[in-house]
């Protein structure tokens, strides 16, 4: 049986990354300070140590030299978060105040002016400012600059207008997460398989008009919830790898069978290329993960024997923000940030589902999460999926942010046993039953093509399932706020009012959440 397990954090970035940013500075030929560059292996070891000791890695805690060295090993571009100098809580204002407001604009322009003056004074070689080629972001308070001057790092960090600085495109060596054993590597795109499979008849139920209801729907009370709500009137935004144009259930037949009166929209915010030559590469799924997640949430209650989604009458907006499940390249971080802004700006979107992430934080994407959250969106994010080699990794980014709701997967049966590849931890809010205890079979979803379902595992499917359940609750109570929906989901979960240190409030019960009877 074929399935993919979502966020596979033992990654090797392969030839596909040739489309990503290439280093634009040769340390050996252009850096007067090349002898000071910290080796990439040493930077990776520091990141690995931080992940082991704290569960995260933050650039803001690193030295000027380390940040500069990471830039030089990537594309020599620095991301700079800014704020009005007197603003004490800028993160709470992202999305509520426009970056074109005078005080924010003045902060950005002061940083740009300081960079120009400093680099000119130091006669630094080969630098470009964001407004030459482009980036003072139009919605988020960050700008990006390309330079090679180490002294510039210290200057920026001393400014009251600077919130953070981070190398834009540095990529961590994920093989360190499993001891550097190349034989155990799992490619970053290994979560991309989503082909039809031979699903045992014991793993689904045929429901009218002729759709397949996944085996775990009964465990989660989803089939019972359908008598009261099917997600009508609620729009769910999915930020992932896009939507397959070859799957009719998520295109021309989105309204078919017992699903009607709704719409599916497709956008692409991911770009390929580097710096100002980057181009959007469209909304089509070139991986399969995004199609699978969208299918779990909103695939129609169809007539052809395909899998049915949890909220089969909800609206769906698919945004291709990343090329695979790990948001680790500069272009992927840009794409996901832009996707969050796109969905944050849409008044029809209430729920955002993100079955993607990375093992450590990125401030640009975090800004975009806050942007969407501050504009009222309920954001679900995967707690993380890997293999037994990295089960020590806790809840990953952005699921570890307070603005998101972290979800992980567990096996069926009494007690709580996380799925073979799922992460858990104190930030987890909910769990979803998504792995059979005997066979380890996974839930059904819609494949990239055809009418035969695929299967999907990991905290990815748990997150998509939770997003669908939230749509059922909100559809039943359309005048509720985000906090009311979330509280109802908590109160109707298995462990409430207690909260486990690893599994949050435990397994969701869709029927109880929709009805209010627990």
Automatic annotation (TrEMBL):
<comment type="similarity">
    <text>Belongs to the peptidase S8 family.</text>
</comment>
<feature type="active site" description="Charge relay system">
    <location>
        <position position="240"/>
    </location>
</feature>
<feature type="active site" description="Charge relay system">
    <location>
        <position position="289"/>
    </location>
</feature>
<keyword id="KW-0720">Serine protease</keyword>
<dbReference type="InterPro" id="IPR036852">
    <property type="entry name" value="Peptidase_S8/S53_dom_sf"/>
</dbReference>
<feature type="active site" description="Charge relay system">
    <location>
        <position position="460"/>
    </location>
</feature>
<dbReference type="Pfam" id="PF00082">
    <property type="entry name" value="Peptidase_S8"/>
</dbReference>
<feature type="domain" description="Peptidase S8/S53">
    <location>
        <begin position="231"/>
        <end position="506"/>
    </location>
</feature>
<dbReference type="InterPro" id="IPR015500">
    <property type="entry name" value="Peptidase_S8_subtilisin-rel"/>
</dbReference>
<keyword id="KW-0645">Protease</keyword>
<keyword id="KW-0378">Hydrolase</keyword>
<protein>
    <submittedName>
        <fullName>S8 family serine peptidase</fullName>
    </submittedName>
</protein>
<dbReference type="InterPro" id="IPR023827">
    <property type="entry name" value="Peptidase_S8_Asp-AS"/>
</dbReference>
<dbReference type="InterPro" id="IPR000209">
    <property type="entry name" value="Peptidase_S8/S53_dom"/>
</dbReference>
């Amino acid at each position: 049986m074929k399935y993919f397990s979502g966020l596979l954090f033992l990654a090797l970035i392969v030839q596909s990354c040739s489309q990503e940013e290439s280093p634009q500075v040769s340390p050996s030929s252009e850096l007067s300070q090349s002898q000071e560059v910290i080796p990439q292996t040493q930077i990776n070891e520091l990141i690995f140590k931080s992940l082991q000791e704290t569960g995260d890695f933050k650039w803001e805690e690193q030295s000027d030299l380390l940040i500069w060295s990471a830039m030089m090993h990537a594309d020599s571009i620095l991301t700079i978060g800014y704020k009005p100098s007197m603003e004490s809580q800028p993160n709470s204002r992202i999305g509520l105040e426009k970056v074109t407001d005078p005080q924010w604009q003045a902060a950005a322009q002061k940083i740009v002016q300081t960079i120009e003056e400093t680099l000119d004074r130091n006669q630094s070689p080969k630098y470009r400012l964001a407004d030459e080629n482009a980036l003072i972001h139009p919605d988020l308070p960050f700008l990006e600059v390309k330079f090679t001057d180490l002294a510039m790092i210290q200057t920026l960090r001393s400014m009251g207008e600077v919130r953070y600085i981070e190398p834009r495109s540095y990529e961590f060596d994920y093989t360190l997460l499993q001891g550097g054993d190349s034989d155990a590597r799992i490619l970053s795109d290994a979560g991309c398989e989503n082909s039809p499979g031979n699903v045992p008849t014991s793993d689904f139920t045929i429901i009218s008009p002729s759709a397949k209801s996944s085996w775990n729907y009964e465990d989660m009370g989803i089939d019972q919830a359908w008598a009261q709500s099917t997600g009508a009137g609620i729009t769910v935004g999915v930020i992932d790898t896009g939507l397959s144009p070859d799957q009719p259930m998520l295109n021309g037949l989105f309204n078919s069978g017992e699903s009607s009166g709704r719409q599916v929209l497709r956008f692409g915010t991911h770009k390929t290329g580097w710096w100002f030559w980057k181009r959007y590469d469209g909304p089509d799924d070139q991986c399969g993960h995004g199609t699978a997640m969208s299918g779990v949430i909103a695939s129609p209650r169809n007539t052809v024997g395909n899998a049915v989604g949890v909220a089969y009458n909800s609206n769906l907006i698919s945004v291709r923000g990343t090329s695979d499940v790990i948001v680790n390249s500069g272009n992927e971080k840009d794409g996901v940030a832009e996707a969050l802004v796109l969905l944050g700006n849409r008044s029809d979107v209430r729920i955002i589902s993100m079955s993607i992430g990375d093992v450590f934080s990125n401030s640009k994407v975090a800004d975009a999460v806050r942007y969407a959250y501050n504009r009222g969106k309920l954001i679900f994010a995967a707690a993380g999926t890997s293999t037994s080699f990295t089960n020590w990794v806790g809840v990953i980014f952005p699921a570890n942010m307070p603005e998101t709701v972290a979800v992980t997967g567990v096996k069926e049966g009494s007690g709580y046993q996380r799925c073979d590849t799922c992460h858990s931890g104190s930030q987890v809010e909910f769990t979803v039953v998504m792995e059979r205890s005997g066979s380890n079979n996974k839930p059904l979803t819609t494949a990239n093509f055809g009418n035969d379902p695929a299967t999907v595992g990991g905290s990815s499917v748990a997150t998509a399932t939770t997003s669908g359940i939230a749509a059922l609750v909100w559809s039943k109570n359309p005048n509720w706020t985000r906090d009311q929906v979330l509280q109802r989901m908590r109160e109707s979960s298995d462990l409430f009012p207690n909260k486990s240190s690893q599994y949050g409030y435990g397994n969701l019960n869709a029927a109880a959440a929709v009805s209010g009877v627990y």
